[in-house]
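User: quick one
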Amino acid sequence: MTMTATAPHEHHEAAGFFRTYLYSTDHKMIAKQYLLLGLIMAVVGGFLSYAMRWQLAWPDTEVPGFGFVGPETFNVLVTNHGTIMVFFVAMPILLGSFGNFLIPLMIGARDMAFPRLNALSFWLLALGSTVLCVSFFVPGGAAPAGWTGYPPLSAKAEYTGVNWGLNLWLLAHAIEFAAFLLGGVNFLTTVVTMRAPGMTMGRLPLVIWQQVAAATLFLLSVGPLIAGAVMLLMDRLVGTGFFIPERGGEPLLWQHLFWFFGHPEVYVVLLPALGAALEVYPVFSRKPVFGYRWIIWATICAGALSFIVWAHHMFVSGMDPRLAMPFSITTILISVPFALTVFAMVASLYRGSISFELPMLWGLGFLAMFTTGGLTGIFLGSAPADIYLNSTYFVVAHFHYTLISAVIFGGYAGIYYWFPKMFGRMLGTRLGQLHFWSTLVFFNLTFFPLHWIGIAGMVRRIANPLQYEMVAPHQWINVFSTLSLLGLVASQLVFFLNFFLSQFRGRPAPANPWNATTLEWTAPSPPPHGNWGASMPAVERWPYEYSAPGADRDWVGQRAPTVEALLRGEGRA
Amino acid sequence: MTTMAHAPTHLSEAASRSKVAIWWFLASEIMLFGGLIASFVISRLGGGAQVDHSQLNVLVAAVNTFILLSSSYTMVEAFACAARGDRRGMRMFLAFTVLGGLAFLGIKAYEYTGEILHGFTPWAGTFWSFYYTMTGLHALHVAIGVIANAALCVGARLGTERPYRVEVAGLYWHFVDIVWIFLFPLVYLS
Ligand SMILES: [Cu+2]
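Assistant: Done. Structure below.
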């Protein structure tokens, strides 16, 4: 902490509450704002899933704390649970918070390239979240047309009876896209132009590579969906006929535009989580990452392929059936780079001296759960199997395994790992252990049985399973899954408790509590405004120098002792 | 609150940041218009969105194309002036560019009025839905460019102190121009 004394920018301590916490342009404060917003929206999204699962287990009974659900409200719950969790929880935490916090600290910069634009991105997102929450309270209620908003259902207010709720839902998306477009431009510009001396792209930590890939995928895939959203809004408000058959429109066009974005969007969420796990493995196995370059190339290949797989979401949509074969092939192909990454992860752990600290537990949980979700993806990616399984709870189980492995397991791996740097205190381990093990158990108990009820024929988005003869005998699965969800929700309360207690009572964190090599651990915990005081870091090696033969300890940091030493070529291993 | 930490130390650093940022931004814009234009082309190939070209005013649109292309030229000149510190020249060429943009928007509005008076409203068929959405979104981009260029023209110090601002505005303006070069043949001629 004494480093700040010599820093040329120490005066910020005197800044008022408004400038410090609200209108802050410091990337670390903005990262905390994203994290808090994401957690608040997670509570909202989680509450919706609780009401939804209660309705499925005990149809048409009063949900405690929510009220009567019924078919119309069920549609609203399904729609907004999906929207909130993907766009207002996963992206703010994994991209907004992790990206903002880590990019400058790990590439050796004082802040993002455009700090004020950065603050603007966050406040736009906060506005978008507010608009979405407000949509619940307008006449007619919130959007009920599914998180994918398929027309014709979504294209005319008469079809759903919801006018303003759906318009606001579209508006909230538009604002969210603008926020992450500006944020993505900021991320990419920062990584391209602001790396510390010696920080070549080949020395960039993998999590930064993954953030770059995620931001690029978002920037390049969201355009067509924005176009689609403009068209849908025109259909609703102006009376055009893009997606309405009776006006000569084509509802399938929306599905193409949506999924052209939708599949890359999965990776926008997945890749930062994958990156967090990849930072955690070497630190807690004291071993370099295996296949650094292979992982980067695999990410690039998967990113490129993700633009030509979208129609696997549309095998039974009525599109030209000749498209099924090529899209099946690209979909099976895309599992190759991911399989390669998973093998590289396993090889990174192989024969390491693994210590099961909390970030590592979450990291390993990510690997196990993500692989499970990936395996069911192979069933769904091939058209013949998908024709039977599509739109069932098998799909619901599949994408919760892939998305929850990323958002919850990968996200917590990152939060537990970087919490000391972010807040200057260690997260409590005892509550942390309880949190991890109960989440792992209850998550699997909640979602694994959904594979079975899906195979048995329960389709998505039905409000009352008891009305279907072939599903009713399996109702115990719905009850079991809902009871397990209550356990899963309770486990997250443990996290919230730990999170807030540790802010005040946690053990003060040293600068480098995990003996890690990357640059952020050379700044104080928490880093001051400007991150490193007067002397900025320079970099002299790749980020995973663990247990190098001949070194006097089992890790050698990326940071060169001084810029001058770097230029003279001293201190090389 | 101090800005020490993030004030760019060199002009060239700020310039390269802004240029990298605008290129990434334009990449996403290409995908936006790309998605819209691809939707139009696909629905055209599928037999929808057909139109009788006599209902469109090709001559007026051709004049408009010429005006927009010329304004791209004056934008290039404006940046050349800014780069050598010629504030008066920069202002003059920026003013021409702004006028070109305004003329384009005025002529487009004239076209819209004529079409709507003949009953070709946005809900008159799929072609007209695409026509108004594509050209309208483009016109919105033109309007934003006009505002940016006008700001640089009025606050000329913004431009001569930091010529890269004019360059960035120029890159955006050329992009808007290129979009129109795709839209014009697709909408009016094909
Ligand atoms: Cu997909």
